[in-house]
């Protein structure tokens, strides 16, 4: 089944004719006709409009896999407005093919499927200052994203936490052998050269009042890259 066949199947499922579908997604009726006959590939605009307007499953539209429509529970915040094109083109953008061509789109993916934890709504972002985590790739002025699930397991990694009222973004290591929580600054990429900033006994009765772990960092953004 071609993408044109799937366009026709969607339209018939919706119970509209080509003119009505074209009007709904702001397209020319002749374009819809050409798509259904296999004479023209749908543009990114048409695909995006169809996905947004009717909550069509982009993966089904482009590949025939999965269900025709997206169904979301009332507790999920994902929507079809968060789909981005996944390109067939290799990263090298080899000769002979424009990376932005509609025919180069393999399928559309939902950012909430790429990062499932976004669906929980327990994601927060904070700006960071300083260069103590430069070796991990976090620069001064970056925005770090962390999961604020209170039931998350604690493994070695970068965390946002408060200590004695001050908030930090640093690497925490949980040493089961010595029963210590170690705090590291990572100024170089080699973790073996990370600087031990401080350490605590995990069984210290005063630690729960001094230390509060807000969440584990799973990504960060460089705002200057958007300018």
Q: Can you give a write-up of this model?
A:
This protein has 227 residues and is of the alpha+beta class. It folds into two domains: 3-116, lambda repressor-like DNA-binding domains (434 Repressor (Amino-terminal Domain), Orthogonal Bundle), CATH 1.10.260.40; 122-226, Umud Fragment, subunit A. 23% of the residues lie in helices and 27% in strands. The protein is built from seven helices and nine strands. The protein has helices at 3-14, 18-24, 29-36, 44-54, 58-63, 111-114, 207-210, and strands at residues 83-87, 105-110, 123-127, 143-147, 157-163, 166-175, 180-185, 195-201, 211-221. The strands form two sheets. Strands 3-4-9-5-6-7-8 form a seven-stranded antiparallel beta sheet. It has a two-stranded antiparallel ribbon with strand order 1-2. A hairpin with a 2-residue loop joins strand 5 (157-163) and strand 6. Helix 1 crosses helix 3 and helix 2 crosses helix 3 (29-36). The chain is elongated and about 70 Å long. It starts with a helix and ends in a 6-residue tail after the last strand. Mean pLDDT is 81; it is low at 72-80.
């Amino acid at each position: 089944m071609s993408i044109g066949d799937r366009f026709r199947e969607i339209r018939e499922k919706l119970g509209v004719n080509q003119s009505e579908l074209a009007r709904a997604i702001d397209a020319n009726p002749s374009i819809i006709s050409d798509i259904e006959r296999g004479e023209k590939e749908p543009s990114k605009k048409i695909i995006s409009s169809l996905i947004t307007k009717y909550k069509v499953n982009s993966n089904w539209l482009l590949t025939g896999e999965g269900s025709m429509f997206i169904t979301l529970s009332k507790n999920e915040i994902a929507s079809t407005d968060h789909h981005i094109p996944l390109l067939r083109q290799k990263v090298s953008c080899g000769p002979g093919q424009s990376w932005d061509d509609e025919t180069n789109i393999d399928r559309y993916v939902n950012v909430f499927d790429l990062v499932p934890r976004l669906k929980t709504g327990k994601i927060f972002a904070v700006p960071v200052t300083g260069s103590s985590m430069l070796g991990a790739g976090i620069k001064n002025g970056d925005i770090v994203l962390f999961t604020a699930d209170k039931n998350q397991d604690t493994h070695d990694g970068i965390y946002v936490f408060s200590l004695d009222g001050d908030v930090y973004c640093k690497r925490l290591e949980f040493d089961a052998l010595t029963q210590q929580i170690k705090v590291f600054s990572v100024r170089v990429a080699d973790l073996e050269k990370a600087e031990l900033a401080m350490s605590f006994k995990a069984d210290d009765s005063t630690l729960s009042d001094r230390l509060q772990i807000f969440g584990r960092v799973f990504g960060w953004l460089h705002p200057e890259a958007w300018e």
